[in-house]
Amino acid sequence: MKRRSWLRHSGGMLTAALMPCAASAQQAVRRQLRFSIVLSNPHPSELRDQQLWLYLPASESPIQQIDSVSVSAKHNMLSDALGHNILQLSFTRIAPLATKVVSIAVDVLLHDASEPAPLKDFRDWLTTERYIETSDAHIQALAAQLRQPTAQSSGRAIYEWLRQNMHYAGYIADDLGALYAVTQRSGDCTEYAYLAVALARANGIPARMVGGYVTDRNIAPRAEDYHNWAELHIDGAWRLLDAQKEHWLTPAQQYIAFRFYRDKITNPVGLAHRFHSNGELQIRL
Questions:
Q1: What domains lie within the chain, and their CATH numbers?
Q2: What start-end ranges are recorded for coiled-coil regions in this protein (predicted)?
């Protein structure tokens, strides 16, 4: 792992260019996402030294880069070796029963998903992980049934099996994983993604689960809009596989990645999907 890099910012409504663009802006789609974070002190006493870390859109050249970030509170920006961008909010004191609202606007540049994205080490995306039980006999057996002569045709076979055999159960609060999905044939978008990744890895295709938002316009996402999908590394680039929404390969430019799932801690958000706090604040995003 590379040492985590720290990009520090301070002041209100600060706009900062984070990453240079690998392609020209004329070739990119620009999207703005706006969030309001409500932080409440539920106690009749003052809270001190409260911190919150949350994911912003990831930076992954040449596919996706943050162009600017505007935050209505003092903050720091962090990044890690996977390309995650993390917003850190720190509060020295929060008054009893007080509520704070922090506004965030992020401009993202999205490029053609067919752009080459070489892997530094493809083995990182072929392993068994928590919730991605690639080596389990049930998953190995199904992967063998779906194996085709090429990685792309195998990916398409995985997509079609999921689309035709999985039952969408609606939102489920807990992660259940690929093994649950293959045995129960049910789950929410997270289980669809876990199983797609497990089946791809079992067939020797580097794959990852991604979390974020799907949109064809500027939006203020709601919590329930957060979505998980799979990406398979085929022919030198990450390819979209989202059987829950019935999207294979396209429309990749509508998918804005915030988190690349790994069963290890690479930043202060830890193993959480969206954010992590170290205090007693109640947080609504």
A1: 5-112+267-284 (2.60.40), 122-260 (3.10.620.30)
A2: none
**What does DSSP assign to residue 241?**
E
Q: Alpha-carbon distance 168 to 150, whole Å?
A: 28
Per-residue tens of pLDDT for the chain, all 285 residues? 333 333 333 333 333 334 443 334 447 899 999 999 999 999 999 999 999 999 999 998 778 999 999 999 999 999 999 999 999 999 999 999 999 999 999 999 998 777 788 888 899 999 999 999 999 999 999 999 999 999 999 999 999 999 999 999 999 999 999 999 999 999 999 999 999 999 999 999 999 999 999 999 999 999 999 999 999 999 999 999 999 999 999 999 999 999 999 999 999 999 999 999 999 999 998
